[in-house]
Fold:
Amino acid sequence: EPEPIDINIPDNYVQHTLKTQKELPPITWSNWYRELQWISVLALTITPALAIYGAFTTKLTWQTGLFSVFYYYVTGLGITAGYHRLWAHRSYNASKPLQYFLALAGSGAVEGSIKWWSRGHRAHHRYTDTELDPYSAQKGFWWSHVGWMLFKPRRKPGVADVSDLSRNEVVRWQHRWYVWLILGMGFGLPTVVPGLLWGDWWGGFFYAGALRLTFVHHSTFCVNSLAHWLGETPFDDKHTPRDHVITALVTIGEGYHNFHHQFPMDYRNAIKWYQYDPTKWFIMACQWVGLASHLKTFPDNEVRKGQLTMQLKRLRETQEKLTWAPDSNDLPIVSWDSFQEQSAKRPLILIAGFIHDVASFLDEHPGGRHLLVKYIGKDATTAFFGGVYDHSNAAHNLLSMHRVGILQHGYRQSLDDKAIPPAQRLRIARY
Amino acid sequence: EPEPIDINIPDNYVQHTLKTQKELPPITWSNWYRELQWISVLALTITPALAIYGAFTTKLTWQTGLFSVFYYYVTGLGITAGYHRLWAHRSYNASKPLQYFLALAGSGAVEGSIKWWSRGHRAHHRYTDTELDPYSAQKGFWWSHVGWMLFKPRRKPGVADVSDLSRNEVVRWQHRWYVWLILGMGFGLPTVVPGLLWGDWWGGFFYAGALRLTFVHHSTFCVNSLAHWLGETPFDDKHTPRDHVITALVTIGEGYHNFHHQFPMDYRNAIKWYQYDPTKWFIMACQWVGLASHLKTFPDNEVRKGQLTMQLKRLRETQEKLTWAPDSNDLPIVSWDSFQEQSAKRPLILIAGFIHDVASFLDEHPGGRHLLVKYIGKDATTAFFGGVYDHSNAAHNLLSMHRVGILQHGYRQSLDDKAIPPAQRLRIARY
Ligand code: HEM
Ligand code: HEM
Ligand SMILES: [Fe+2]
Ligand SMILES: [Fe+2]
Ligand SMILES: [Fe+2]
Ligand SMILES: [Fe+2]
Structure:
């Protein structure tokens, strides 16, 4: 029985590792060719080269075209529903047949074995955006897209436990036969099917094999690059992951990456029914036919807390940008006599205990100048609050902007609705 | 010089009027035919009857069809840009030629003179949704659409000053010649233009006259009915007015009625460029060619306050529906010894001074059961806050739900970010 690798991890593992672990020098124009990881470089250049060569030399038949698209989805789902949501995140349980299907399909995407892939991916989640993240978006779009594979990693990815995968029979089987599986599923099967069924061997090899694989590659790579760059952060903005429908379209539904990083063990990436997440639909379909079970979801209460926080963050920016009424504590207390005396010089109106200077508003008043003039030096509370006209909340807010003083012994200055302009009754506060 | 009618209005006019003014009995199945207002009944039944008769007897030519649509917009704008935004609300200044054009066009909509119409409309704004509102939406959709015209009003509309209109030469001219103007603009002109230009006298009369008028009628009536029923309240929800694009499409842009009731002297009804408000576009065009000036807008700062308040109201409902961590004041203070003793019986973990019971979470923990078990009876603050894994804000929120006690003399329980779950740092508070 393998033990979890992090069972004896110290309390300060992250800080300690960052401080003491050696790092390779950064990739530069003068050293890059010495730092290449040749296996990945070859796999990621020969495949598209074959695809381009094939496109110029081999006619595309509609059968092979359709089959290539179909096989793109099959092998893509091997990664998204298999490698990613099942094995890396344990977001549901899959029966043996489904596991073998996903392991085979995922092999056809030629992205390393489940075990290797999940180990890196768990580190990506555990140390997102840090030096211990194998494909940190902080190192730039191209680094997170392919750079991290083309070059030798500058550091070992941070510790991540995959002992559960080491115990899994299907994962072990795939890891063991991996080289044969990529040859068979990546090129063999997509060549043989069009070859035997409609005689298009070369078309199968170039289109369903090489071209399809190029697309699957960059499609899944987009989850590490595009999904950390494009879109909104509706659930949390602590890290780079973002939600965008374009990324979702390109990645078979993995584009709601802000949600995914916040709730990684949720089998869904998109939570709304109308959002594009075919990987989720596939997992649901597997559940319906009995191949999958225990689909995990994060409690809705906590999901909505995240959304609420983000909305409040945004509204708080608005709140801080707006100009608000002067604070009651900053206004002078004015005696009745002084109010009378001042009113002879400028148009002061008393409403709800506050003295307002309406000089700039006399000719703007939609109810007419005459109604304001009438109340200079007087208390217009009743008239303003509905006796003559039940002013809109907007009018109340505007009124508060004209406050210049508080009448001594006047209207009780409590936390009363009349003293607080409507727009200031609900406020976003920070604790 | 006419004086404003409300210059000597008492402080408690509204309450006093509602209490003392006599009201006619409600319309019922037994009295309705005695309460009909025959002029309106005839105008609003004969016009559509003519339109229907015409549709069955007269072929519609494309020229007359196009002209009818065009004339629908002309006479509709007479009401929306003229009667409504210019005269009832004084939301901009119009040169004499524009005023005559709008007065003529508005006459073609056959909805009463500018003076009569504005007096009622100002009362509608001043006493929205109350007994003093001539077309109060509180009395039902059909009452606000046509009922208020078909039957004798149950009460006099509340006082509203139109002395500015009594001083206006164009308004006075239109009021004086009103009967001739509706005949000429409502039926004469739309019959004569198609008649003289392409020989379609009857088509002009039925389509550009009667049918077009029926549409203009119900189009503008929709501002009183549909616009008080359908849609959202993004600026204020004190009264019935609502914003909806469908109402806007039907009413030449008057469908952003929630905005309009909140900011009635704003020449715009829609504030976003992509919203459908051709009346606003028309007024802007008139400004460009020098026919209109002094287009009034409500200060953006105050508009945004209204929007903010409404958004906070909605988010506060979410905030209240969600389940939050137990209040620190409700948690027991637990000594270190008691924490140790209890930890032997159930899985208690100390983080940031709070004791958490993670029994229900042990097997759910995405980082694995082993990492939690390791910390039973111990302080996991450093590990949880990034030493081992820098948990997501969602994880922090979830953690707070497991709080069962506070360690005595433990972590300083201040208003510190570690003690307050991320989702509770920003809160909507009511003053
Ligand atoms: C400085 C104090 C005042 C401010 C800032 C103010 C503001 C406003 C505003 C913004 C409106 C437009 C409609 C609305 O938003 O509800 C309005 C309309 C009106 N105001 Fe005032 N007002 C003030 C004082 C008064 C007073 C003291 C009276 C009465 C004695 C009064 C009577 C009216 C009336 C009758 C209207 C309705 C106009 C109409 O819709 O035809 N206002 N006021
Ligand atoms: C009751 C206390 C705990 C709760 C509620 C909790 C919650 C969670 C949650 C929700 C995740 C998923 C990822 C995320 O949302 O950030 C997670 C992951 C993780 N937790 Fe905890 N955790 C707790 C205690 C701990 C402790 C004490 C440790 C370390 C000693 C730890 C280590 C980890 C690790 C390493 C992961 C990453 C798993 C991965 O992405 O592969 N957790 N935890
Ligand atoms: Fe990611
Ligand atoms: Fe992931
Ligand atoms: Fe209205
Ligand atoms: Fe209006």
Q: What stands out?
A: The mean pLDDT of chain A is 96. The CA atoms of residues 37 and 152 of chain A lie 5 Å apart. DSSP finds 18 helices and seven strands in chain A.
